[in-house]
Design brief:
The protein has 6 helices and 38 strands. It has about 675 residues and is mainly beta.
């Protein structure tokens, strides 16, 4: 099996921080994926170790490595050819000098950092217009071999969002199109999998953490099972075998077992099992306490608090519970940009506990500088002003098995407070299994000392996959950390996954019931028509305008139908340069499709060209989307990317654009 090695140092893959180590963030001024000397020094150390292990496996030395990638999709991060050249040189210094080096990006941005001495490949997903994806590459290098280095066969899941799938027929059509043109491709993914433990990453903006299951709707499932998509792929590939080649037999799936209900009878309350605290006058992020993952507890004493006082936290990364004298006051969820809570009347000297769980670090864009816990400060805000809280005791609660097992477990059942639960179960035979976590709240699971992933009642994932090789005949141990509290402290092993049971407490759409945008009193800063076609289009305004909110009103579609869609969207400054989207929020969207997939309006700035905002089927034009920029900027135009499919479905034709300093009227 030939290998295209893609060592990074940044790899994305929806992995925590894109594969970069958290301890880089201990350096407060670190500039990741840049010419920062500290970052390049650590990258060189890493790549030298990779070279020691793998350089001798280049095909020229009798191994099976035929290509090596330099960085990964850097055009979606920055434009800096000097940085790419530095990474290229580090890759060569580590010993990869005898096989082609390549760089991958999207068709819309691959020229931003393209180096003359590297091969160029393009990444895109099912349904993409193949001609359009390779058009610029063929123009720039008419004799180059063409390759889709990531053909996205499915997509990954986020907590609180619908389970993702991609159409089989559309995937097969795209692959056939490339095969018939002698275009190479690599499926991402051919085999789905699992992001065990705490390693799942997150997207931003808006912050959205990944599920543990990385089934991806791939041809081979999370557990390695064949699917209808696999057999359709196999049937297609059979048509392109060399003379004399035959397809091998499909291996049998690993055996799957069931485990009867396991009742947890040992409990260790988290607040009764705290480690020694670290005193800190100021709040600091988790990394400054030399902690990479898990939860962190910030504790201090409160002054006298009047009812209605706001507790304001800058910033919550990522899911916090607020306790006063041990009583739960409320929860804050970064996915919803929640960072404040109203307090009841509290006497002076009361104990304030802020328990923050770190979900995955952002794995895309500059938001990968994603420090965990509370990143800046905690304040009490009244009409008189803000009072910063000081004098903290900080408790580090890591995810290590040694930490979670070394607790004072006592006989007991479920608790509404954060707690560890422990049980054992006996097996006569081992096999792959899916632990059913439907009755639990939010947390992590360890089986036989191995962290098998996160659970969260909101779904869509409700099971955790356990490979049979990690189970053993006889007694097995399972530990559950539930930060929210279970409805029932039991689990069972079932022989199938549950990946599409969404139980979100509130929709993540961007229109309140009965809410309607009123543009009758507004004057557009620009109006006109877009030109039909795939690829980016740019609109410049006659005059740049200062604003905090932007509205795009779509009046009609290129195909004359009802649907409107946007894959990616940028606002431009007065010089035509893209403005930062890091703090954007969708203030309003007239229509969003959430039944057949995740097509909410925040997809227009998620840095994923294969995802898109799409209006609900049957909703008619006009369609509007309002962006809260959350800062004052000068806007001189916008860039619009329609869907990548042939025929650019949902592409907007006629539009109006509005800018305001204050909010729009509803």
């Amino acid at each position: 099996m030939y290998i295209m090695l893609r060592p990074g140092p940044y790899v994305c893959s929806e992995w925590e921080m894109g594969g970069l180590p958290w301890w880089l963030l201990k350096k407060e001024d670190i500039a990741l994926r840049s010419n920062d000397p500290y970052f390049l020094e650590r990258t060189r150390i890493f790549m030298n170790e990779i070279g020691k292990e793998l350089a001798d496996l280049q095909i020229t030395r009798g191994g099976n490595i035929i290509m090596v990638q330099v960085e990964n999709e850097y055009g979606s991060y920055a434009t800096d050819k000097e940085y790419i050249a530095n990474i290229r040189d580090i890759v060569k210094e580590s010993g990869f000098t005898e096989v082609p080096l390549f760089q991958c990006d999207w068709s819309s941005n691959f020229m931003n950092n393209a180096l003359d001495d590297l091969l160029w490949t393009v990444n895109f997903g099912t349904g993409a217009n193949i001609d359009e994806q390779f058009r610029t590459l063929k123009e720039m290098r008419p004799n180059t071999p063409l390759m889709c280095s990531e053909f996205w066969s499915g997509w990954f899941d986020h907590w609180g969002r619908e389970h993702e799938t991609r159409d089989t027929e559309t995937m097969i059509a795209g692959l056939k199109d490339m095969l018939d043109r002698n275009i190479s491709f690599s499926l991402y993914m051919t085999h789905g999998g699992t992001t065990f433990g705490h390693w799942g990453g997150a997207n931003s903006p808006a912050y959205s953490a990944m599920c543990s299951s990385y089934d991806y709707d791939a041809p081979l499932s999370e557990a390695g099972w064949t699917t209808p998509k696999y057999f359709a792929l196999r049937e297609l590939m059979a048509n392109y075998l060399d003379e004399g080649q035959v397809l091998g037999e499909v291996p049998e799936a690993f055996p799957v077992i069931e485990i009867p209900e396991i009742e947890f009878k040992e409990v260790a309350l988290l607040f009764d099992n705290l480690p020694e605290p670290v005193p800190s006058e100021d709040v600091k992020p988790m990394e400054q306490f030399d902690q990479g993952w898990g939860s962190i507890l910030y504790r201090t004493k409160l002054p006298a608090v009047k009812a209605g006082t706001t507790l304001y936290i800058t910033e919550v990364h990522d899911w916090a519970q607020i306790f006063v004298n041990g009583k739960l006051i409320g929860r804050l969820d970064r996915r919803r940009d929640q960072n404040s809570i109203k307090l009841p009347a509290i006497p002076a000297g009361a104990q304030l506990d802020i328990l923050v769980e770190a979900m995955g670090r952002v794995n895309f864009d500059v938001a990968i500088h994603d420090r965990k816990g509370i990143t800046e400060k905690v304040e009490l805000i009244t009409e008189a002003g803000a009072q910063e809280l000081k004098g903290w005791q900080v408790y580090n609660l890591p995810v290590d098995y040694a930490f979670v097992s070394d607790k004072q477990y006592k006989a007991g059942k479920k608790s509404a407070a954060p707690a560890f639960y422990r049980a054992t179960f006996d097996l006569e035979e081992t096999g792959d299994v899916f632990f059913d976590m439907q009755t639990w709240g939010k947390g992590l699971v360890w089986v036989n000392g191995i962290s098998i992933g996160r659970f969260w009642e909101i779904g869509p994932q409700q099971t955790l996959f356990m490979p049979g090789c990690w189970l053993k005949k006889g007694e097995n141990e399972i530990i559950v950390l539930d930060l929210k509290g279970p409805d029932k402290a039991t689990t069972r092993g079932i022989n199938y996954p549950i990946l599409d049971m969404l139980r979100e407490e509130a929709p993540l759409t961007h229109r309140k019931e009965g809410q309607n945008l009123d543009l009758s009193v507004e004057t557009p800063v620009a109006e006109g028509s877009l030109v039909p076609g795939n690829g980016w289009q740019e609109v410049r305004f006659d005059q740049a305008v200062k604003a905090r909110q932007f509205c795009l009103e779509a009046l009609s579609a290129q195909d004359g139908k009802d649907n409107a869609a946007i894959a990616e969207f940028y606002l431009l400054d007065e010089n035509g340069q893209p403005l930062s989207r890091q703090h954007w929020q969708i203030a309003y969207a007239s229509s969003e499709e959430t039944k057949g997939g995740n097509f909410t309006a925040d997809k227009i700035y998620d840095l994923q060209e294969s995802t898109y905002w799409s209006t609900k089927r049957g909703d008619k034009y006009p369609h509007q989307v309002v962006i809260d920029l959350r800062e004052e900027v000068t806007v001189g135009g916008f860039r619009y990317l329609p869907r990548a499919e042939e025929g650019y479905p949902g592409m907007i034709k006629d539009f109006k654009a509005y800018l305001k300093m204050g909010p729009f009227t509803y």
